[in-house]
Every structure is written in structure tokens, then in C-alpha cells.
Amino acid sequence: MPHLILEYTANLHPHADRQALFHRLHETMMASGEFLLDEIKSRAICLDDYFVGAGGDHHAFAHLKIHMLDKRDGAVMARIAQSLLPVLSEAYQTALTSLQCQICVEVVPIRSDGYFKVVS
Asked: Is-above-0.85 flag for pTM?
């Protein structure tokens, strides 16, 4: 825990190096003092089927969901999300200038009493 899930429109595919982005996101998460590096898991999902506004190829978005246990209070969760938004925005800077692009971060609390895992 936590899980970072990046959904992005297919027209953003060439605009960012996702491995470098994940590295920076993990560094930022670590800097919060809330997580151990080996616990942070990231993945990206490219969306071929999407529709933004009135449609058109010039619309794009990247949406980062941060799934974390609910044992942290809302202020901590908000601080973490706000620290990741500039990292995501920087990674997609060219898209922000060349497309009609939206970058967003969402915290998704996971109930602590309903999350289980096994670690080797």
C-alpha cells in the first residue's frame, strides 16, 4: 500500500516517459514520510475509448488515483495528493501546452479492515 493507478488518454502516450514518472511519483510519496518504498505500487492504463467535452482529438486527460489505507486523516491524504499534482503536470507539460489537457489526482481511501495481503 499505496497503489497509484494512472489512467490516461491514448493521445497522451507519446507525451511522457511513464517509468520516469513512476520513479518521481515514488520519490515524492517517500518524501511524505508516510510510506516505505517497497510498499508503493504503480501502474498505468492507456484509454483508447474516451470522450471529453464535445469530443475531438485535441482533448486529453491524465487521472492519477492514489489508493491508500484510511488510517491517515483527510489532511494527510490531501497533502500527499497535492504533492503529486505538480509531478504529474510536469510529466505532461508538452501535452498541457499542445492539447486541451486535464491533469487530476484523486485519493481513494481503502478501509483498513477490508484490505489483506501476503508479502514474500
From this structure: yes
